[in-house]
Amino acid sequence: MSSNRSSSGPPGCDVAIVGLGPVGAVLGNLLGAAGVSVAIFERDADIIPTPRAVLFDAEIMRVFQSIGLADAIEPALRPSTGMQFVDPAGNVLLLRAAADTEGSQGWRAFYNFHQPSLEGALRAGLDRYPTVSVHLRHEVFAVDESPNRVSVRVEDMASGGLRTVSARFVIGCDGARSLIRRLIGGGLSDLGMHEPWVVADFVLKHDPGLPPITTQYCDPVSPSTYVHVVGNRRRWEFKAAPGVDLRNAANPDRVWALARRWISPEHADLERAALYTFHSLIAERWRRDRLLVAGDAAHQTPPFLGQGLCAGIRDAANLAWKLIRVLQYQAPDSLLDTYGPEREAHANAFIQMAVHLGKMLTAANDSQMRALAGEVGSGAELVYPTPSLGQGIHHNGGAAGVIAPQPRFEDRRRLDDDIGYEFGLIVSSLAQVTLPAQLLELLDSLGVAVVSASGQIEEWLTSIRQTFVLLRPDRYVLAATSSVTDLQDILLPLERALGVRERSRTSSVRA
Ligand SMILES: Cc1cc2nc3c(=O)[nH]c(=O)nc-3n(C[C@H](O)[C@H](O)[C@H](O)COP(=O)(O)OP(=O)(O)OC[C@H]3O[C@@H](n4cnc5c(N)ncnc54)[C@H](O)[C@@H]3O)c2cc1C
């Protein structure tokens, strides 16, 4: 558990993170591992004890691998046993079946988890980094911007004292009501769904024979979702019926009445019930000058795909390396302009699909449900989106712009373990190419790790018919080619966009 390690307050830092939810914690870990000086301000005294997210995907596990926490986190997870959408008669409309083996990302495809436990592990991870300071019960209430720095004004909520912290960049990971988003300005694009749902978490005393997989009940009268979380934890989500007094919608008696179809107090304790409005919104601006937003501050999605937190963690993985390049490699700060467009297009694809599934859950009749299922399924198989990044630091087409798989080397090591949170050039060993010395020098100054393929990694290159794949630190493919000349043409302009390794790094100001 992270603590407030600064009593007098930081004089200055490179990055101030506003909000220590899961997204702020992942961003802090990524930046801390690179030695960036970071000050994190969180208004609450402790982790929010009531879980919201219950599912994340393998790409997120890969980010935890990047910050060296996958092994610590994995034992508390439950590999997802799948998800189905059923009609009122119990017929399966869409199914995401679960494999009980490792998937293309090098991990199981989806995991169920207990959010407060996950956040505990992420916060403990921050304690590894001397350049990261965490300030709990500190609320950011204003920022004053100047061309070179931002003064962040903070209230120490324990003492009521006010202080000012200077930062080169301020990242709002401050949730749905983000102050930083409002200071950036620009509106929110509305993707059309805003629905009140009651979320209820139960702890089972014994299992009365609940469904083995997550089940979303498409029902014109009473749409609902059931999730086998971890251990004896179970979640139900019920759409608030029209006309219900929302102030009473999450009242325990009402919740037990809604859950009666599956369980009664003899089977479980009700841990908590709360009303949430599921929104579908995306920020029009993700950056203005030295202010940026990530996570729920930048987008909100109905949880029918389990992707809100995933999108936030992808934001952190996309943004951290760009900040590191600007702060440590002298990359122009225009690199940060690629963050919003890249992430907006990607997050948008998931929100649109979640809205679509939400419409299916609440469709008026069977034929509407089936038509909606048909638009996103292949047969009854629910096909998850694998969107490309919006315009930014990648070549378009083929393997580029999308998340790379994580195959294993011949000796079973995972690809990312060889590269770390860095750029990597994977080179086919079958092609037997020798890279010219000048190119190797360029790769070195750009900070690109060169990896010789073997095992499944070589099979991947063969399947996409490429000799070289250039990976970004967030594991999206920057470019793939089979020609050394092309590779040179791809790398040369990157010198300007990404900056080069500083030979003698100037010491950062520690927060
Ligand atoms: C019912 C429900 C189910 C969900 N299920 C899933 C799921 O299965 N999978 C999934 O991926 N996502 C899911 N989500 C979405 C997911 O929970 C959120 O996207 C995620 O928790 C957001 O994380 P965050 O760090 O961006 O924001 P938050 O967790 O909201 O953290 C923001 C933090 O900023 C702090 N803060 C705010 N303003 C200030 C300030 N001015 N100064 C200091 N601190 C400040 C707050 O105190 C808070 O701690 C679900 C959401 C809900 C509601």
Q: What's the pLDDT, averaged over the residues?
A: 93
Q: Looking at the structure, what is the overall shape?
A: globular
**Secondary-structure content class:** alpha+beta
Number of strand elements: 25
Taken as a percent bin, the fraction of beta residues is 25-35%
Cα Rg: 23 Å
User: Portion of residues in helices?
Assistant: 25-40%
Which characteristics define this entry?
511 residues, alpha+beta, eight-stranded mixed beta sheet, disordered N terminus, binds flavin-adenine dinucleotide
Compile the SSE list and pairings:
Layout lengths: L11 E7 L3 H12 L4 E5 L12 E3 H9 L3 H4 L4 E2 L3 E4 L5 E5 L13 E3 L2 H12 L5 E5 L1 E8 L4 E7 L5 E11 L6 H6 L3 E17 L9 E4 L6 E5 L4 E7 L12 H8 L8 E16 L3 E2 L2 E3 L5 E2 L7 H21 L10 H23 L4 H11 E2 L2 E2 L32 H5 L3 E5 L9 H10 L1 E5 L2 H9 L4 E4 L5 E5 L2 H15 L13
Parallel strand pairs: 1-2, 1-11, 2-8, 5-13, 11-18, 22-23
Antiparallel strand pairs: 3-7, 4-7, 5-6, 9-10, 10-11, 12-15, 12-16, 13-14, 14-15, 16-19, 17-18, 20-21, 22-24, 24-25
Helix pairs in contact: 1-4, 1-7, 7-8, 8-9, 11-13
The structure holds flavin-adenine dinucleotide.
The site of flavin-adenine dinucleotide has 33 residues, from helix 1, strand 2, strand 3, strand 9 and helix 7.
